[in-house]
Amino acid sequence: MSHQFDVIVIGAGPGGYIAAIRAAQLGFKVACIDEWKNAKGGAAPGGTCTNVGCIPSKALLQSSEHYEHAAHHFADHGISMDNLSIDVAKMVARKDTVVKQNNDGILYLFKKNKVSFFHGRGSFAKAVDGQYEVAVTGDKPDTLTAKHVVIATGSNARQLAGVPFDEKLILSNDGALALGEAPKKLGVIGSGVIGLEMGSVWRRLGADVTVLEAMPTFLGGVDEQVAKEAQKLFTKQGLKLQLGVKIGEIKTTKKGKATGVSVAYTDAAGAEQILECDKLIVSIGRVPNTIGLNAEGVGLQLDERGAIVVNADCQTNLPHVWAVGDVVRGPMLAHKAEEEGVAVAERIAGQHGHVDFDIIPWVIYTSPEIAWVGKTEQALKAEGRSYKAGSFPFIANGRARALGDTNGFVKFLADANTDEILGVHIIGPYASELISEAVVAMAFKASAEDIARICHAHPSLSEATKEAALAIDKRTLNF
């Protein structure tokens, strides 16, 4: 017997669970299906973000940063550390606890909002009488029916051709988060967010980390001035960055009882090189996940990348079938998925849900953090748009000095004629938190002068934001 709902959401990652909750708030009878399992086989909603992405990586980044501060910076504060050690197993266990707290929190939110949760894989069975029948496979098979279906099945790590993940030697983000100890030599293919964050975690804990990047420039999507500063600082920290490489044969090796990975590559100068490492993280992007969805069974349209084709409102080619998050076009960001999930639930209710893709913030949680929103300077140059730039370094900020973290700067880009803020780029302490002021400002079409005229607390890192806005008009007060 099929259970009847108004809305079925397939996937309980950031896009899915938020869509389910918002739809329930709007009065719909909602079901959410998700197949993630924890180590004991129980439900683990939250998708890649909660289980093997955003949340666990930040937990490990925090732990490893504490260790690095204790090893290299506490002495500056008069704190002596003798016989410092790190228990990696306990660090990973703490990460697992943080993940479970988030899993349990989502299950609590489902219960609070009267969302029916089904643990298993959701797939289309058939379309019938203007509704869709969705099968749940798993420990407790079931069948659900609803007029509206929201697909939020996320993405999977992209593999190198012919080099599958074994999560022991060749790692995706999943395996990189579960290492039992810091490898002596760690290779990373790809200098994107995952590669840099995971490389940073294990470098801090003693790994010799080499990052191989095919692109000739570092962090190509980031503002060039920020990317250059980041490359300088990461290199100083000990990350070995090889740009413009061409990856060749990758094979596992064994010397006695020791296993490892050998990566053949051609460097930027055209020389043949070999990287020998104990573990290899492959972080070359992600691909939309439609495995087992039975898209072909109901005629759901996919594009050449395997992503579900949607219009500007996240509607698919099928009536009353929607898709959000990593499985559709646009940036693969958890907060983008959440905003789409809310918007779709509101559109189902006849409201006018809205997502402004121009002001979605981006963050890389390295140290220093990197965050930005809006246009980069190189993009504005390519457009031929007249603009003004202003920046302010954290070394001139009193709170940053007190923190002992003065690397980086805040940079504003504003229209040369109207002074409207076109982009804000930050590299430095707590950039992930500071960027929100810029997002709010841009949402309301604020000018750089608006930010420059707002009183910011002293001493605070946010004063660097105000000073960068003042720098647009060449009138910084503390630099």
From TrEMBL:
Its EC number is 1.8.1.4. It catalyses: N(6)-[(R)-dihydrolipoyl]-L-lysyl-[protein] + NAD(+) = N(6)-[(R)-lipoyl]-L-lysyl-[protein] + NADH + H(+). GO terms for molecular function: dihydrolipoyl dehydrogenase (NADH) activity; flavin adenine dinucleotide binding. GO terms for cellular component: cytoplasm. Belongs to the class-I pyridine nucleotide-disulfide oxidoreductase family. Residues 5-341 form the FAD/NAD(P)-binding domain. Keywords: Cytoplasm, FAD, Flavoprotein, NAD, Nucleotide-binding, Oxidoreductase, Redox-active center. Disulfide bonds join C49-C54. Its cofactor is FAD. The active site is at H458. It is found in: Cytoplasm. It is an enzyme of class 1 (oxidoreductase). SUPFAM superfamilies: FAD/NAD(P)-binding domain, FAD/NAD-linked reductases, dimerisation (C-terminal) domain. This is Dihydrolipoyl dehydrogenase. Residues 360-469 form the Pyridine nucleotide-disulphide oxidoreductase dimerisation domain. Pfam families: Pyr_redox_2, Pyr_redox_dim. InterPro entries: Class-I_Pyr_Nuc-Dis_Oxidored, FAD/NAD-bd_sf, FAD/NAD-binding_dom, FAD/NAD-linked_Rdtase_dimer_sf, Lipoamide_DH, Pyr_nuc-diS_OxRdtase, Pyr_nucl-diS_OxRdtase_dimer. One of its GO terms (biological process) is 2-oxoglutarate metabolic process. It comes from Aquabacterium commune. The active site is a redox-active disulfide bond. FAD binds at K58, G122, T153, G154, S155, D326, M332, L333, A334, H335. NAD(+) binds at G190, S191, G192, V193, I194, G195, L196, E197, E213, G285. Binds 1 FAD per subunit.
